[in-house]
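Q: What residues go here?
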């Protein structure tokens, strides 16, 4: 598969994918709402579909940003995941996913989440392989590409700051902070 010739660029529209699934009762948790894991699995599937289509190779999930379950999804709702490749690096791609849930009786649609999956294309030997560039067809495509660059920069910066904060953490000096937390020390 990896040996098929790839174009230098592919348009965003080439790999835009929508996955729609009915939320059936077996997807529900004990509270009667849809399990977060079901939605995560659908997000992973749609990210894979968009990334692999753009890359023309199998892709793997490397990291996930922005998954929040702020509104419950109900049994009987029709969930659609709209995915597109927002950004490409050399071997990595950022797929943006918008999740909406529709009540089929009322037609009311709620936007439950937007998240971002970083995927890496692999060749037949399992090594990262170069992906086609992205042809930006609309101003919206350009905005998303630029946002992805910013997101990446911020993540790298935050990671560096967080790593520094962790390596500077002296537990015995900071135990006093726990006094404001809902815990007690029992040793
Ligand atoms: C992700 C993976 C391919 C990176 O392999 P590697 O040999 O370190 O490759 P590289 O350092 O060349 O990185 C490859 C790309 O991944 C990106 N990448 C690596 N780690 C990353 C991270 N934590 N977050 C975002 N992107 C990352 C790099 O920036 C690079 O992108 P670019 O080519 O567009 O510049 C490798 O760790 C892997 O296969 N992980 C398992 C993925 C998997 O199986 N997922 C399924 C879920 S279990």
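A:
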């Amino acid at each position: 598969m990896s040996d098929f010739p790839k174009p230098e660029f592919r348009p965003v529209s080439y790999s835009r994918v929508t996955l729609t699934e009915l939320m059936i009762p077996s997807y529900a948790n004990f509270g009667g709402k849809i399990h977060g894991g079901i939605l995560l699995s659908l997000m992973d599937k749609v990210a894979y579909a968009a990334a692999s289509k753009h890359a023309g190779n199998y892709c793997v999930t490397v990291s996930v940003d922005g998954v929040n379950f702020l509104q419950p999804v109900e049994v009987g709702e029709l969930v659609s995941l709209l995915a597109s490749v927002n950004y490409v690096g050399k071997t990595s791609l950022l797929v943006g996913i918008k999740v909406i849930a529709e009540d089929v009786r009322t037609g009311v649609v709620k936007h439950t989440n937007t998240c971002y999956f970083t995927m890496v294309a692999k060749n037949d030997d399992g090594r990262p392989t170069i992906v086609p560039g992205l042809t930006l067809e609309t101003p919206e495509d350009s905005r998303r590409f630029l946002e992805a660059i910013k997101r990446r920069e911020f993540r790298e910066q935050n990671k560096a700051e967080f790593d520094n904060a962790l390596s500077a953490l002296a537990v015995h000096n900071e135990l006093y902070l726990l006094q404001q937390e809902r815990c007690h020390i029992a040793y």
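A: Context that may help when evaluating the design: The chain is about 30% helix and 30% strand. The beta strands are 9-11, 17-22, 59-65, 78-88, 92-102, 109-121, 133-135.
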